[in-house]
UniProtKB/TrEMBL annotation, chain B:
Domain NAD(P) transhydrogenase alpha subunit C-terminal as annotated: residue spans: 1-80
Keyword Acetylation applies: no
Name of protein: proton-translocating NAD(P)(+) transhydrogenase
Class of this enzyme: translocase
Length: 276, 90
């Protein structure tokens, strides 16, 4: 399929996503909206599969079958009360996928990347990993695999600071043209640990807000992978989710009478250690 | 930029009861990373990229299918409750 055709069809997908969000905002049409989005997604997948110069179809087919089966079975069998953690889990795997795409691109083109692409790769790896591990912790907390209470320990800020510092230094080095493979692994590892540290101190009751925030993160990670792969549908849909997700996070915080800063940093300084 | 504006514009007036399904819906939409995953897996030519690309497609496909199905189940629950208007409804 030619570039113009696929771009035009991708545009249709983007329109369906916008309509999906629009419909999902009104109780009457919400369900229809969801299926419009699904149809748009199907179209995007078909268009992508028809790209010129693509191979490994058996590999892709098997992977899609496994992923779809796991997703469908998981989503159908989960109890209604366990829905939020299921959303967290699906969000996390999306972030993980974004991080893996960044890994592959860096593996293939390290050193030969322009600053913009290298920066996008860093962002995709960084945000994707944070979203992945953060969502897993959110899942574990809601599933009560880990205590839902805020988990805090002495020196937490120092540890977090060091992790962030490591990630930022590695990120800047890569963006500036650093091409060693260990750099991107280090970056992913630091971001992974940070995702865990970021969600651990947050209480179970605040989890929906956190999941919504991580959801917005994954959107941004998807957008960044779009820049890496020169793919418009990724850039636009990712940005769409990033923006609507951020706003939704703020709205949810407001509806729960909690400011988002309070949710995120409340437990950091042990301000309200006994409150939960 | 336009996408960001649209995202904000579309979401700004949402009833509270739709927050969770909407979150779930946007969650399904960022499953669009599957496009990236397919592109990466489809152009993979060595063992490492094939394996990582494969895993990326699996994860993204789970995100897409799971995301849409979970959202649908949430909304289905709404619809059944709507006509009754019991005391538990918000």
């Amino acid at each position: 399929m030619g570039r113009t055709t696929s771009d035009a069809l991708y545009l249709v997908t983007i329109v369906t996503f916008i309509l999906a969000l629009r419909f999902l905002s009104s109780p009457k049409h919400a369900r229809k909206g969801n299926w419009i989005g699904a149809a748009g997604m199907t179209l995007a997948i078909v268009v992508t599969l028809a790209h010129r110069g693509l191979g490994n179809y058996l590999l892709i087919g098997i992977a899609m079958a496994i992923g779809a089966a796991v997703g469908a079975v998981g989503a159908r069998t989960v109890k209604m009360t366990a829905m939020p953690q299921m959303v967290a889990l699906f969000n996390g795997v999306g972030g993980g996928a974004a991080a893996l795409i960044a890994l592959v691109e860096f593996h293939d083109f390290a050193g030969g990347l322009s600053t913009v692409i290298a920066t996008s790769t860093v962002l995709s790896a960084l945000i994707g990993s944070v979203s992945f591990s953060g969502s897993l912790v959110a899942f574990a907390k809601l599933q009560e695999l880990v205590s839902g209470r805020p988990i805090v320990f002495r020196g937490q800020q120092v540890v977090n600071g060091l992790i962030i510092l490591a990630a930022v230094v590695l990120g800047i080095t890569i963006a500036a043209g650093g091409a060693e493979q260990w750099m991107i692994y280090g970056l992913v590892a630091a971001a992974f640990v940070f995702g865990i540290m970021f969600v651990l101190p947050i209480g179970g009751a605040d989890m929906p807000v956190v999941i919504s925030l991580l959801n917005a993160f994954t959107g941004l990670a998807a957008s960044a992978t779009g820049f890496v792969l020169h793919n418009n549908v990724l850039i636009v849909s990712g940005a769409l989710v990033g923006a609507s997700g951020t706003l939704l996070t703020l709205l949810m915080g407001k509806a729960m009478n909690r400011s988002v800063t309070n949710v995120l940093f409340g437990a950091f300084g042990q301000v309200q250690a006994g409150a939960a | 930029m336009l996408a960001i504006f649209l995202g904000i514009e579309v979401i700004s007036k949402v009833p509270t009861m739709l927050h969770t399904p909407l979150m779930s819906g946007t969650n399904a939409i960022h499953g669009i990373v599957i496009v990236g995953a397919i592109l990466v897996a489809g152009t993979a030519d060595d063992g490492f990229t094939k394996i990582v690309g494969f895993v990326a497609v699996v994860l993204a496909a789970a995100n897409v299918v799971g995301g849409f199905v979970v959202t649908d189940r949430m909304l289905q629950m709404f619809r059944r409750r709507e006509p009754r208007r019991g005391p538990h409804d918000e």
